[in-house]
Design a protein that fits this description.
Structural class: alpha+beta
Number of helices: 11
Mean pLDDT: 82
Helix content: 25-40%
Largest sheet: 6 strands, antiparallel
Distance between the termini: 59 Å
Amino acid sequence: MDMKKRIIFIVNPISGTHGKDEMPKLIEEHLNKDLFHHEVVFTEYAGHAVELARQYAAECTDIVVAVGGDGTINEVARSLVHTKTALGIIPCGSGNGLARHLCLPLDVVGAIDLINRCKIEDFDYGVINGLPFFCTCGMGFDAFISLKFAEAGKRGPITYVENVLREGLKYKPETYEVEDADGARRYKAFLIACANASQYGNNAYIAPGATMKDGMMDVIVMEPFTALDAPQIAADLFMKTLGNNSKIHTFRTPSIRIHRAQPGAIHYDGDPIMTGSDIDVHIEHLAIRILVNPDAPEDKAQPNQMLNAFSDFFNNINNVREDIGRDIEKSGRKIQAINKVLLRKLRN
């Protein structure tokens, strides 16, 4: 009797930061053929990964592997929830938020070797206004930057940070009415993020203590802040200390309803979409199966050159603040001054 598992690799040829032409060859060379019958399928249009994954799940395929960026992983994963088909990940994106949270290898060969070990666990996922997410969703500046990032054309952490620095201090906070099992509250906020996993990607930790197995989401409310608050918030984001910042309020809940004054953008796993003024978010507990790294704790961060740059930068935070202050005094243009200093330090 054939005991091999059926595994399908869904490859998005245009997602992420590099080409996928060599992917079939790498899979052929490194996948354990004694364990798997495999196929490699390339997507042909937007949303094709959703359709393919749904089809393979209906056929009771053992594992479907998403090969691409966070958007591709979301498309495949949303079709596998509440099925017996497990999600595998070969991360090829610019952020790789879910892969980093789960401590999966970021190189193709390492990811395939991990698939060969075939350890599968159950995890939570979230839903915002009917749209599944697996890492984070959000509104306010969170979603605004997702829109800007989508429009930028270029990918990668530098593009993301440039957008944050360029737009962040011009963004006007909104007022949100937030309701969960503990009652209703009103916040004037820069952003509200709901996190199933710990980070956005690129080791930017919006919810350092988040776990994907507790049936809860971490809700992060960021209050309005000034130009001189921005460096410390950025430092906390990359150093897993955001919860210590006085501008941040956090709580955990399985579901939440949020009302804002007018329709606007939200994002789910970084993909932006326009929606109405009422937003519902909840967690589906242990409803997706995912191949994991048996050797790594869930909260272990991958090394990241951007984190090193920020660490070096913020070890000298007082000097940087003085530089910013002098620039502001001379020019009177806060945003341009802080952008100039931050980007100079980041690029060095």
